[in-house]
Design goal:
2 copies of one chain form a homodimer. Chain A is built from 7 helices and 4 strands. Chain A is mainly alpha-helical and 166 residues long. In chain A, the strands form 2 sheets. Chain A has a two-stranded antiparallel ribbon with strand order 1-4. In chain A, a hairpin with a 5-residue loop joins strand 2 and strand 3. The first copy, chain A, starts with a helix and ends with a strand.
């Protein structure tokens, strides 16, 4: 089981966008530069975040991305589902219905116990991801910052932030 | 995030092996036939289960596979880790350390809050998978069986089970 690298990139990008003032946006290129990642790869994930309604896209040469909701209202689960898709990790192929001399259909009305147990585990995983918001991540970062992290972010935003009407 | 089809195949195969008498084994070909899956693909997963110490391999033309432990002592987590590998789904690339004007190393002594939250969710996922054993799956199957499921399994074993010294 593996989550794509896009999940880490998307969460860090969302955290960066959460530090923008209300009228600010950042381009995909700036977000990619700040995180030292491939711009084209990050762009794909920003588009997924946009399709999921987590970021707003401001078009045009002075455009860019900003959060579509307050940081308190965006969870890790929202981001993981946006980037990785909504399907569960365990995808039951109903192999219990295959093979020689298959059983009558009435045995398969109830979901397979194996699929049920695997999906129960995914429910607790998702519930746990839902407990952490972008606002929580920022609080955590601030609690461990003596000023250096904030100063680096501010210096970057001073060069790259674009002002736009909201 | 996606688990390979091998997980479903491995769990069903382990459940089938749990129904064998103490001196019985099943070949990879028989397990593949029963579940209607590719023998070569299943063989790869049986080898992973063997490497993880979950099944014993009896070599030779009358050989095959049997559980290496009691069904009570084999959990869904054991099987998922055997087939998918022990690494967590979220693999932190430390992108917080990249980009322009990187921060001094002292800021990275504590794990990134994003990685910590993602890994906390994986811990609850794994803990949930650990709650279900092969014995639990068999109890659940029996509770929903009016005899048809057991009869099909027995008929198959009658043809395919191989007797071996234990």
């Amino acid at each position: 089981m593996k989550l794509g690298d896009g999940v880490e990139q998307a969460i860090h990008s969302m955290t960066m966008l959460a530090t923008l003032p209300e009228d600010g946006v950042l381009s995909a290129a700036a977000l990619a530069e700040f995180h030292g990642v491939s711009p084209s790869y990050l762009l794909k994930h920003l588009q997924a975040l946009s399709s999921a309604g987590l970021v707003d896209t401001v078009p045009g040469p002075k455009g860019g991305y900003r959060l579509a909701r307050k940081p308190e209202a965006i969870t890790l689960l929202d981001i993981v589902l946006a980037v990785e898709g909504p399907q569960p990790a365990f995808r039951c192929r109903e192999i219990r219905q295959r093979g020689p001399d298959p059983l009558p259909q009435r045995y398969f009305e109830k979901p397979c116990g194996i699929a049920a147990a695997m999906l129960a585990a995914e429910r607790v995983y998702r519930a746990e991801l839902k407990k952490t918001s972008i606002a929580d991540l920022i609080s955590d970062l601030k609690a461990n910052d003596d000023g250096g992290i904030a100063a680096r972010g501010c210096a970057f935003l001073e060069i790259h932030e674009r002002k736009t009407a909201r």
